[in-house]
Write a structure and sequence with these properties.
Blueprint lengths: L3 H21 L6 H45 L14 H27 L4 E8 L9 E5 L7 E2 L13 H13 L3 E8 L5 E12 L2 E11 H9 L8 E6 L4 E3 L1 H4 L12 H4 L9 E5 L2 E10 L3 E8 H4 L1 H5 L7 H35 L14 H27 L10 H18 L6 E8 L2 H8 L1 H18 L5 E3 L4 E7 H5 L1 H18 L9 E7 L8 H22 L1
Antiparallel strand pairs: 1-2, 1-6, 2-3, 4-5, 5-6, 7-8, 7-11, 9-10, 10-11, 12-14, 12-15, 13-14
Length: about 550
């Protein structure tokens, strides 16, 4: 076992010896090594600064489109929006046209507000997929010729030539990517073949593409940001795609051919960034240095400048080499201080961790693995933490689990609703959609009275089996003797009708094979969907689901 005091003594002695050796070997230090490191660091900082500016600009556009995507998805919850293909009848097409028209009007209104507060964009649009079976085409707004957006003729997907990638890549590349993606630069036919960059996204509903939604900026707008960057005296910045192909270079603007040195291989330019790598090449017979960083993994901004300008300051350091000895001594004094501080940090962390354990935080990190006194003490604390965490976890499991069915109980349901209410309060109308299903097992009392409670428990567990085998990804709660609740979120929420149909099918299969009343499943169901702007609490949705369940129970009694 190595004590902390021995470690501190060893480090101190090593620091002193290293300082002496450094003083003796100062003569072999080269200005070139420091020059290379410093120049790589400077160029990296410049490229990262430019990358942050462009990333912030492009991210603002991404955020705007993502807001429109969420609005579009929320607006698609309409029973008349169904995929017809090319075979829908007149009445079906008319209903789909009306539903998609309402959907597009809602998205157009919201997207317009978003677009007016997004800098630099020249268009925003929503092109409805003609294969969906509707005559609705979406909308298209542009302000290329003015300061305000002007509504333009709709972009009709059936008129887009799949083979004309130069002009239709904004649509078909979005479909191919199946996710929001940056496209370009390309010649936009709806902008007079101006070089354009687009952020586009396919909108899906029930597994089918409804259309493509996006925003455009002119390529010149992005380039104007790059042209403002000053890179030393005669350096400059240029733009590449993710594969290292040059998209903009000052030589291009002057009509010259871009000639990159053979040292700048395509494999090298495909790196995400240069990091601390030193990349130098020849330009017009003079050594230049290059650094680049990625923007959203789609583009790269590169900065380059003559090596003589980058290292000018470093060369001046040769005049003050007599001060190196003093600097080295100061550095090693600081290193020794930092190392000693690092050796005592585990003890400070252990003290802070013990305070958190005392306050009930059982997820506190105790990751010191040293083979010393602090390491032994940390291991003991870690075992105590794990035992306490296991004990508390077991207590929580007992408190929130229904003993008979193994489902979450009413206490767990109350806690879950409280968290959902906190989310609604925090996010308001921007909260994600959800639905609540309330289920009631009919005839439980009659089965208990006629056949006994054992058969009644079998009846309940058969119903629970149907629920768990259908709603595999959603939390299910037992609220009382014969009442259950299911909360549908994310993907389960958007496919809730499919889940309800599958549940009905599951019940039918169970009942077909049942021989005794307690082997059957007879359930009253009610489902309610969260309505933004109307519902302010989850309990309002739950109340509607409960009312629908009782209405279903009444209808079932009338049938019998």
């Amino acid at each position: 076992m190595h004590s902390i005091s021995i470690k501190i003594t060893a480090v101190t002695v090593a620091a002193v010896l290293t300082s002496i050796l450094a003083l003796g070997g100062i003569g072999i230090l080269t200005i070139g090594a420091e020059s290379d490191r410093s120049s790589a660091e400077k160029m990296e900082l410049i490229s990262e600064n430019m990358e942050r500016q462009l990333d912030a600009y492009l991210s603002s556009i991404q955020q705007s489109v993502n807001m429109a995507i969420r609005i579009a998805h929320d607006s698609l919850i309409d029973p008349d929006i169904v995929y017809l293909g090319r075979s829908g009848g007149p009445e079906e097409v008319a209903r789909l046209d009306a539903a998609l028209g309402r959907h597009c009007q809602e998205v157009e209104h919201a997207f317009g507000s978003i677009a007016n507060s997004t800098n630099g964009i020249v268009t925003y649009y929503y092109c409805i997929n003609g294969d969906y079976g509707s005559n609705e085409h979406g909308f298209f707004w542009s302000k290329l010729d003015g300061n305000s957006f002007v509504k333009q003729p709709d972009l009709i997907s059936d008129e887009l030539d799949r083979n004309d990638i130069e002009h239709t890549t904004w649509y078909y590349s979005a479909l191919k990517a199946a996710r929001p993606v940056w496209i370009g630069p390309y010649k936009a036919h709806f902008l007079g073949d101006a070089l354009t960059i687009s952020y586009v996204a396919p909108i899906y509903y029930q597994g089918f593409v409804v259309g493509v939604l996006g925003m455009d900026i002119l390529f010149d707008t992005l380039i104007s940001h790059i042209q403002t960057l000053e890179v030393f005296n005669s350096g400059f910045a240029f733009l590449m795609d993710r594969d290292g192909n040059v998209l903009y270079h000052p030589d291009m603007a002057e009509g010259k051919e871009v000639m990159l040195d053979e040292a700048l291989s395509q494999q090298l330019l495909r790196r995400r960034d240069t990091g601390d790598m030193l990349i130098r090449y020849k330009r017009n017979g003079e050594p230049w240095q290059l650094s680049f960083s990625s923007i959203n993994d789609d583009y790269k901004v590169a900065v380059t400048a003559p090596v003589s300008e980058i290292t000018a300051y470093t060369r001046k350091l040769a005049l003050v080499t007599v001060l190196v000895a003093v600097v080295i001594l100061a550095v090693f004094a600081l290193i020794t201080l930092l190392l000693m501080n690092a050796l005592t940090k585990p003890l400070l962390r252990l003290t802070a961790a013990s305070q958190k354990l005392m306050d009930g935080d059982y997820d506190v990190e105790l990751n010191y693995e040293g083979n010393d006194e602090v390491g032994i003490l940390t291991a003991a604390f870690r075992r105590m933490r794990d035992h306490l965490k296991l004990y508390i976890s077991d207590l929580n499991s007992r408190a929130y689990t229904d003993a008979m069915t193994g489902l979450k109980n009413k206490g767990a349901f109350t806690t879950y609703l409280a968290r959902m209410n906190d989310t609604l309060k925090r996010e308001g109308e921007n909260a994600s959609g959800f639905a609540i299903i309330v289920l009631d097992c009919n005839d439980l009392k009659q089965i208990n009275d006629k056949y006994g409670h054992t058969q009644g428990d079998m009846y309940l567990n058969t119903a629970v089996q149907a629920m768990t085998e259908t709603f595999t990804h959603s939390p299910i709660f037992r609220l009382g003797g014969d009442e259950f609740a299911i909360i549908l979120q994310q993907f389960d929420y958007y496919t809730r009708n499919d889940y309800m149909a599958a549940f009905e099918h599951q019940i039918s299969e169970i009942n077909e094979g049942a021989r005794n009343p307690w082997e059957q499943v007879n359930i009253s169901k009610g489902m309610a969907v969260y309505q933004p702007g109307i519902d302010t609490t989850v309990e309002q949705v739950l109340r509607r689901a409960d009312e629908q369940m009782y209405e279903d129970k009444r209808k079932q009694k009338e049938k019998h």
